[in-house]
Design goal:
This protein folds into 5 domains: 178 residues, Globin-like, CATH 1.10.490.10; 158 residues, GAF domain (Beta-Lactamase, 2-Layer Sandwich), CATH 3.30.450; 111 residues, Beta-Lactamase, CATH 3.30.450; 185 residues, Reverse transcriptase/Diguanylate cyclase domain (Alpha-Beta Plaits); 239 residues, TIM Barrel. It is 54% helix and 18% strand. The protein contains 36 helices and 29 strands. An 8-stranded mixed β-barrel has the order 21-22-24-25-26-27-28-29, surrounded by 5 helices. α9 crosses α13. The longest helix has 61 residues. It is extended, with a radius of gyration of 48 Å. The two termini are 83 Å apart.
Length: 978
């Protein structure tokens, strides 16, 4: 209560609150007598709604987490509700004097101390005003003209309250800031005192040649810093048994008796030693931790004090370390207020400083010995530098801090084009360097590198150096700091890069040309055609890109050898090149009989007609300006006619058979990528149809665009419309009993833009575009959702009989370790067990990379998944790999099952697969069982499981639930079960 009164007095003074100032506040908000009368008239009627108001207010307040935490105690909440009721009642009581203001400020201080923020205060009033205005409207419903002025009067009083509450909050904030400033000031003063102490300690160690004298000064500083009476400092050493003992180096001169004083004085020269561990000193040495004893006489670690020694009222022992080992300790005694962990924390920076000083002491001891050695090394170094200067093939110089050459070798003389070393000595390399290096000032850059060399060591960079005659020489420069004639200098090595640059340029040239034929390669072809396309956009040219393939090139290699195959490619390239250049780079040929005035950049076109390239294997590419598709066809026909003449290869006459794919700009494509892709597609079709040439057309483009659209819609649907995907469930049964054993999950997609898209269309596209992993995860999520729902409903098919759901894993995903880990994690996060799932892996996918697939299969088996090899018999797996594949089930492809009764070969294959599975301890599942005869035959053959239309068509989740789960079916399959 007293604390609240002091706070009230402080805030009244802080905001100058008195009768006059409060009256001014009311005037500012225009709180008039008629307002007060209106509120008085509502005072009693509003009390009817007080309980309802308070309850509604606290219902709103307790919907927020912060309020629930602050008002968790029901008693506190009840007291606040009672106070709040009185508080709100006074709002319409009509007495708005200084006592009213004080009461409002008192409430504001109380709320601030509870921890309720200003935003809560504003929120409180918002709720109060909202509800109260509603009640006023009800009370004054018979006199509606009074509603608006009454509500205005209420809002004025509310604003008066809010400003008073904010004054209380601002006062509290001011006090908090003042307290924080005082705390910071105290910490700063203590830190300053600590820093001054450390400075004096460091100075003592620097200025005192004697280590013991420095420790005496250190001890006095520590005694003063901690208000201690006396203390000691000693080294912690180890005896022949590796037991630690203390050897004193500094001790306060305290009044001992004659006997102990004589002992101390006799050992003062070499240091008094303490080998007893059973006391406070020994505890520090044995534990390596600080020892605090504020009641030493009753402390179990105390071993007493020597006779005549002053009484110990408090004690602090501190170890100090070097490289992690305890090397000394400090003992302090009889501080006026004892010692605490805070004392240890305050002294920690001093102990860290002492560790550094200890290191400095060791370094100083070593320094004297090292200086002599360094002098000898310096002389040897300068001798070696002199030898290196003369023997090195690279240009070497020594420059001082002013960037002036003080020594150099003959190679430097040659690099700079001067007559002798004396011409360079005294010269700054900057004076004969290029003014700039890669658009940066040579002077600034040189200063930067030299500064880094002096501070960080070795530097290497490239530099464009000039000779004395102004000729440019590219160099690689290395800077190494050295001591030369007792001065810190930089050794500079200039390595001439002229030959290296020439080789690099040659390499770049080779990077753009095919090594075998000498023609442009794919990179250069891309650059040139892109340039040609830019010209074509300006001048409205038509561009034909032609891909030409030597169909029988492999036959030549197989019959005449690889060298002959390469010779053929070289000869074909030369013939094509000579053909296109024999007609004035085809310009005259292309534009013949065309009388329009074409604005053609002759030189640019000449260059681009050199856009003949070998882009891979036996495929050549050509880009040409043509006037029409017919002109392109004529050009290609001419090229193919030219190539029909036999080639002499390895003393044999070789005929070549060619196919070409043609794409036109801008008719078929508008970019280099789409244009070349169109040519490649057209070439593939020409080869498939065995046609000499094939034009890429709009239909092909539309098909590509449709596939691209499908890919984009798949990606969009996965991210933003996953509900467009759904699953169908096709039961799998025991082939002997026709009891349900599992079900295969099949994905369906009904896109809002494309409509229903068959799985055979969108699944391959998802695989091509790298989306199949996300699709598989979605299938898992949809399946897990259904499984969890059925398990929650208590269906025993899952809890007792262990029915599994089979999910297909794409061949693209089998060797994706990251995806497999994510899939396993997703299963576990779904709340299901891997044992609930059967994963179907295609034989083709496994055989793409058998070793990796086998490792992943082992991983999946360890996680307890059931694994099936899908479409078995359609791939090319060997028995040796099958032996290593830890699969549980072989699925026999429907291709064999549907015709097995009428095709003896298919029947033999089915029997072989069943027998093979039995040998390897696997089960078999037949797909595509569509009639009873096939089902009976599979039963006779010993097939384990089956699925197909005979048992059931793929069902929706609700259909599967109704027909198989709710009835707990053990159905004999028939076509009515769809």
């Amino acid at each position: 209560m007293l604390r609240m009164m002091h706070a009230m007095e402080d805030i009244f003074g802080h905001i100058s609150l008195n009768e006059t100032s409060f009256h001014n506040r009311k005037d500012l908000i225009r709180l008039r007598t008629e307002d007060i009368e209106l509120l008085l008239a509502l005072h009693v009627p509003l009390q009817i709604y007080e309980t309802e108001l308070i309850n509604a207010f606290y219902d709103h307040l307790m919907s927020f987490d912060f309020a629930q935490e602050l008002l968790a105690d029901p008693e506190v909440r009840a007291r606040l509700q009672s106070t709040q009721k009185t508080y709100f009642r006074r709002l319409t009581a009509g007495e708005y004097d200084l006592d009213y203001a004080k009461d409002r400020i008192r409430v504001g201080i109380a709320h601030e101390r509870v921890g309720l923020t200003t935003q809560w205060y504003i929120g409180s009033y918002a709720v109060y005003l909202e509800l109260t205005c509603h009640y006023i409207a009800k009370i004054l419903s018979q006199t509606p003209a009074l509603i608006e002025p009454s509500i205005n009067a209420l809002y004025k009083v509310a604003l008066l309250d809010i400003t008073l509450a904010f004054d209380a909050y601002m006062y509290a904030s001011h006090k908090s800031i003042h307290a924080a400033r005082q705390e910071v000031s105290d910490k700063y003063e203590d830190q300053l005192n600590l820093q001054q102490t450390i400075d004096r300690i460091q100075k003592a160690f620097i200025l005192n040649a004697s280590y013991d004298s420095a420790l005496e000064l250190l001890l006095n500083e520590l005694i003063e810093f901690t208000n201690s009476a006396f203390g000691l400092i000693g080294d912690v050493l180890h005896d022949e048994n590796d037991a630690p003992y203390l050897k004193l180096r500094a001790l306060t001169n305290i009044a001992w008796n004659d006997e102990t004083r004589a002992l101390y004085e006799s050992n003062q020269a070499n240091g008094l030693e303490f080998h007893n561990h059973h006391n406070l000193l020994g505890s520090v040495m044995t534990t390596g931790k600080p020892v605090i004893a504020n009641s030493p006489n009753s402390d179990s670690r105390s071993g007493g004090v020597p006779e005549g020694h002053p009484t110990l009222n408090s004690y602090l022992g501190l170890p100090f370390y070097h490289n992690g080992n305890i090397v000394g300790m400090i003992g302090l005694a009889n501080a006026e207020e004892g010692y605490t962990e805070k004392t240890v924390k305050r002294l920690t920076p001093i102990l860290e400083t002492l560790e550094s000083l200890y290191e400095a002491r060791k370094l100083r001891d070593q320094l004297t010995e090292t200086l002599h050695e360094n002098d000898e090394l310096r002389q040897q170094n300068e001798t070696q530098i002199a030898i290196l200067l003369q023997k090195s093939a690279d240009a070497i110089g020594i420059i001082n801090k002013d960037m002036v050459i003080t020594e150099c070798n003959d190679a430097a003389v040659k690099l700079y084009g001067v007559s002798s070393r004396q011409d360079l000595i005294g010269l700054s390399p900057l004076k004969i360097s290029s003014a700039n290096q890669s658009r940066e000032s040579s002077k600034n850059l040189a200063k930067h590198y030299i500064s880094k060399a002096l501070t960080e060591g070795y530097q290497r960079f490239e530099w464009l150096q000039n000779t004395i005659h102004g000729e440019n020489t590219p160099t690689e420069v290395t800077l190494t700091p050295v001591i030369f004639h007792g001065e810190a200098c930089i050794q500079v090595v200039w390595r001439d890069l002229t030959e290296i640059r020439a080789k690099e340029n040659r390499i770049k040239q080779l990077a753009y040309f095919d090594e075998l034929t000498g023609l442009a390669n794919k990179n250069l072809f891309s650059d040139r055609v892109k340039h040609l396309l830019e010209l074509s956009k300006r001048f409205n040219y038509t561009i034909a890109v032609v891909y030409l393939d030597l169909v029988n090139h492999e036959d030549v290699k197989e019959t005449l050898g690889y060298i002959a195959g390469d010779d053929l490619l070289h000869a074909v390239g030369r013939r094509i090149a000579s053909t296109i250049r024999s007609a004035d780079t085809l310009i005259r040929y292309v534009f013949s009989d065309d009388h329009r005035n074409f604005d053609i950049d002759q030189r640019a076109i000449d260059r681009e007609f050199d856009s003949l390239a070998r882009i891979n294997g036996e495929v050549f590419a050509l880009a040409a300006v043509v006037k029409s598709a017919d002109a392109a066809a004529m050009m290609v026909a001419r090229l193919q006619d030219t190539l029909k003449a036999p080639f002499t290869i390895a003393d044999s006459k070789v005929m070549v058979n060619t196919r070409t794919g043609i794409a036109l700009f801008p008719q078929d494509a508008e970019t280099f990528e789409t244009l070349t892709r169109g040519a490649a597609i057209a070439l593939d079709i020409a080869k498939e149809k065995s046609q000499p040439s094939y034009f890429f057309n709009v239909k092909l483009g539309e098909e590509i665009q449709r596939r691209s659209l499908i890919a984009k819609r798949i990606e969009y649907s996965l991210k933003f419309d996953p509900d467009s995907f759904s699953i169908r469930i096709q039961p799998q049964v025991n082939a002997q009993t026709h009891q349900l054993t599992g079900a295969e999950i099949l994905l369906r997609w009904d896109d809002s833009t494309l409509g229903s898209v068959p799985p055979g269309v969108f699944i391959p596209i998802a695989e091509e575009r790298g989306l199949i992993n996300e699709v598989t995860k979605l299938v898992l999520q949809l399946t897990a959702r259904a499984l969890n729902a059925w398990k929650k409903q208590g269906h025993t098919l899952f809890t007792v009989q262990g029915i599994r759901m089979a999910i297909n894993i794409s061949a693209k995903s089998i060797d994706d370790l990251v995806f497999i880990d994510e899939f396993i994690a997703e299963v576990k996060q779904s709340g299901l067990s891997p044992a609930d799932f059967e994963l179907e892996l295609t034989e083709t996918g496994i055989m793409y990379d058998p070793e990796t697939a086998i490792e992943i299969i082992k991983k999946l088996k360890q996680e307890n998944f059931v694994l099936a090899i899908d479409d078995f018999g359609m791939g090319h797996s060997s028995l040796s790999y099958l032996r290593n594949i830890e699969a549980d089930i072989l699925k026999i492809d429907m291709f064999y099952i549907r015709n097995m009764l009428n095709d003896s070969k298919n029947m033999a294959i089915v029997k072989t697969i069943i027998s093979t599975a039995q040998i390897f301890g696997m089960k078999t599942l037949a797909e595509g069982v569509e009639d009873e005869e096939t089902a009976n035959e599979l039963k006779i053959l010993g097939c384990d499981y089956a699925q197909g239309y005979f048992f059931s068509y793929p069902l929706t989740i609700s259909e599967f639930e109704e027909k198989w789960i709710k009835q707990n079916r053990t159905s004999r399959g028939n076509l009515n079960n769809r």
